[in-house]
């Protein structure tokens, strides 16, 4: 198999964390993660390309260091620092995973060059997906989601006819109709791209805050057939049933977590903190449910803003959710 090209702006940096020993029983993320080398791991061995157990699919992490989407959306910038902050929070965590994890480094969005960065990240992701990896993108503002979509939409799985579902954990629809793409527009961009590709747009959102989305955004969501649960309706039981229904209607899932879905006390380090929010145990249960479905193709975590974080609280939550999804 020919190794796919990978061009990133920042190569993988060393991971750090507490050292308890070299043995497997002492292993933490910083000891387990290796630099991504296209073609080097078991995913490229044909008989291992589709492991029977989805918990053994190798994962690869890619950072999307971008402030431009939030800047264009008139929010508080700082999310470009998030990939490094999430890696720092992941590094010391005990490693209980059955899969390998590698780090491909970062795509860096320079001022104004959002669209080009999204395309570059998408290409890198598609190559990783087609080599048999579970891809994990660390944003960036929620403009990260359109980069993720480009990667997923270009994959053999989706081009080959697998029904794609996009599940967003978010206080916002991010269906804004604006002249320029931003952190507020990615899912309307996806709706247009899916229509152009002749595919159904399957988009569901858990955690919508009614006072933080205008009537116009609700109308757009209704017009596109978007399924959603309001934050106040997010009991564990209702969320579980909602996610199960959505999963049943798709073959592969792209899960995107906008950390502002969580209460501001749990996730203060975001551009737009949530006054209400979905409790962490409910969000964590969704992650477990998605992981156990075996349908997870790609995930990303967006909107962490380390400049407004408190004691790294939001970064730690992001790391914990990534760990749960890969477990
Ligand atoms: N990523 C997008 N976020 C929200 C921001 C809302 C706000 O700033 O209040 C949106 O565009 O709706
Ligand atoms: Mn969002
Ligand atoms: Mn949001």
TrEMBL record:
Function description: Catalyzes the conversion of N-formimidoyl-L-glutamate to L-glutamate and formamide.
Record organism: Pseudarthrobacter psychrotolerans
Keyword Metal-binding in record: yes
Residues reported in the UniProt entry to bind Mn(2+) 1: 142, 170, 172, 174, 258, 260
UniProt superkingdom: Bacteria
EC number(s) reported in the record: 3.5.3.8
A Pfam match: Arginase
Stated family: Belongs to the arginase family.
Needed co-factor(s): Mn(2+)
MF (Gene Ontology): agmatinase activity; formimidoylglutamase activity; manganese ion binding
Note describing how the cofactor binds: Binds 2 manganese ions per subunit.
The UniProt record lists the keyword Isomerase: no
Binding-site list for Mn(2+) 2: 170, 172, 258, 260
GO biological process: L-histidine catabolic process to glutamate and formamide; L-histidine catabolic process to glutamate and formate; putrescine biosynthetic process from arginine, via agmatine
Enzyme class at the top of the EC tree: hydrolase
Keywords in alphabetical order: Histidine metabolism, Hydrolase, Manganese, Metal-binding
Name of the coding gene: hutG
Pathway given in the UniProt record: Amino-acid degradation; L-histidine degradation into L-glutamate; L-glutamate from N-formimidoyl-L-glutamate (hydrolase route): step 1/1
SUPFAM superfamilies: Arginase/deacetylase
Catalytic activity, reaction form: N-formimidoyl-L-glutamate + H2O = formamide + L-glutamate
Protein name listed in UniProt: Formimidoylglutamase
């Amino acid at each position: 198999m020919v190794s796919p090209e990978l061009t990133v702006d920042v190569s993988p940096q060393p991971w750090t964390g507490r050292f308890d020993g070299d043995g497997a029983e002492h292993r933490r993320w910083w000891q387990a993660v290796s630099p991504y080398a296209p073609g080097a791991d078991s995913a490229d061995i044909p008989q291992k390309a589709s492991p029977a157990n989805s918990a053994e699919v190798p994962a690869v992490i890619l950072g999307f260091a971008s402030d431009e989407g939030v800047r264009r959306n008139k929010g508080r910038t700082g999310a470009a620092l998030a990939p490094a902050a999430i890696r720092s929070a992941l590094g010391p965590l005990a490693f209980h995973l059955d899969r390998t994890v590698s780090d491909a480094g970062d795509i860096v969005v320079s001022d104004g060059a959002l669209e080009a960065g999204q395309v570059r990240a998408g290409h890198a992701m598609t190559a990783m997906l087609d080599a048999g990896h579970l891809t994990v993108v660390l944003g960036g503002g929620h403009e990260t989601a359109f980069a993720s979509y480009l990667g997923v939409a270009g994959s053999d799985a989706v081009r080959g006819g697998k029904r794609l579902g996009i599940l967003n954990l978010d206080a916002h629809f991010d269906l804004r109709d604006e002249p320029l793409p931003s952190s507020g527009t990615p899912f309307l961009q996806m709706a247009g791209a899916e229509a152009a590709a002749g595919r159904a747009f399957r988009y569901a959102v858990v955690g919508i805050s009614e006072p933080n989305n205008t009537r116009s955004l609700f109308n757009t969501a209704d017009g596109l057939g978007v399924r959603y649960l309001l934050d106040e309706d997010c009991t564990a039981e209702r969320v579980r049933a909602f996610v199960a229904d959505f999963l049943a209607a798709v073959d592969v899932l792209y899960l995107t977590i906008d950390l502002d879905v969580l209460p501001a006390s749990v996730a203060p380090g975001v551009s737009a903190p949530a006054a209400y929010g979905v409790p962490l145990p409910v969000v964590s249960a969704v992650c477990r449910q998605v992981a156990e479905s075996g349908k997870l193709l790609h995930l990303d975590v967006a909107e962490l803003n380390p400049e407004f974080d408190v004691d790294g609280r939001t970064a730690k939550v992001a790391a914990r959710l990534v760990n749960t999804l890969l477990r």
